[in-house]
Amino acid sequence: MRFLCLHGMGTNSEIYEAQLAPIRGHLGAEHEFVFVDGAIECEPAHGVADIFPPPFFCYYSKPTRSQLQAAYDLVEEVLEEDGPFDGVFGFSQGGALIASMLLQRCRTDPGAPDLFRVAIFTCASLPFDLDCNSDDGRIKYYTAIDPLTGAVSVRDFVPGITHVETTKVNGYITSPEPGELPLRRYHPDRERLRIPISTVHILGERDPFVPQSRALVGLCDDAVVVSHERGHELPRDGLFARKAANAISAAVSKSLFRC
């Protein structure tokens, strides 16, 4: 299988390649992995600069429609020029971006072929909804997620109100400027859309993003969860790598026989 691989915010493709190396070693040499950098240079994720040299990238630095659309365009260009790909790996923001694209495709073109057969999400945050704004550009609703409890509150705005209060939600770097409208996140308690392909979700029990990662599981029809006791990371020990690789291999096998 050929896999597209999208890194997390504040890292880069070389870092993600190193993070995935133990799992890739257990998956076997018959698979090909293509790693893609985000287009926006940003500050490094916590602890990254102590190990890896810059530059560091993200796919979007704030949750606005223009930035998310630019991230979509980047991935679609890679799919056109270097595809097709059978599967996709996404760490943190990279996973959220892929989930957003998959849900968007389900909404706008439900009869189209799936972008991938299988998706592997690692420590992923919840995806943003590209089309949550109204036709006149005013936001209709906004999602806030408590980073400690995972509680989700949705705030609906009365038509005609243009002021949007910035809510602290982890998963992006830069707050929207005055006049920029932040996108809301998808959430399974509200959405009817579901990602239809086989998915594997690698979760860190001590990851501050884990409430969002678990909510993303609920946005998928055919999900398998692999958890570890660490934080926002991929453990490098052989036992965990084998466990994750076995779950991924099972999802790949299932996807090959999906009608």
Task: Characterise this structure.
29% of the residues lie in helices and 21% in strands. By secondary structure, the protein is α/β, with parallel strands linked by helices. Strands 2-1-5-6-9-10 form a six-stranded parallel sheet, sandwiched between helices. It has a two-stranded antiparallel ribbon with strand order 3-4. Strands 7-8 form a two-stranded antiparallel ribbon. β9, α4 and β10 form a beta-alpha-beta unit. The chain is globular and about 50 Å long. About 6% of the residues have low confidence. It holds the Pfam family FSH1. One of its GO terms (molecular function) is hydrolase activity. It comes from Parathielavia appendiculata.
List the helices and strands and how they pair.
Blueprint: E1 2-6, H1 13-27, E2 32-36, E3 40-42, E4 56-58, H2 65-82, E5 87-91, H3 93-108, E6 118-122, E7 141-145, E8 152-156, E9 195-204, H4 210-217, E10 220-228, H5 238-256
Parallel strand pairs: 1-2, 1-5, 5-6, 6-9, 9-10
Antiparallel strand pairs: 3-4, 7-8
Helix pairs in contact: 1-5
GO cellular component, one term: nucleus
GO molecular function, one term: hydrolase activity
Pfam families: FSH1
Question: What class would the helix/strand composition place it in?
Answer: alpha/beta
CATH top level label: Alpha Beta
Give the termini distance in whole angstroms. Answer: 18 Å
- List the helices and strands in order: EHEEEHEHEEEEHEH
Biggest sheet, spatial arrangement of strands = 2-1-5-6-9-10
Radius of gyration of CA atoms, rounded to a whole number: 18 Å
The tally of beta strands, per DSSP, is 10
Please tell me what the overall shape is: globular
The low-pLDDT segments are: 157-171
How helix-rich are the residues, as a percent range? 25-40%
Write the CATH architecture name: 3-Layer(aba) Sandwich
- CATH fold naming: Rossmann fold
Q: Main beta sheet, described?
A: 6 strands, parallel
CATH superfamily name? Alpha/Beta hydrolase fold, catalytic domain
SS field, number of helical segments: 5
Mean pLDDT: 86
Total number of domains: 1
- Share in β-strands: 15-25%
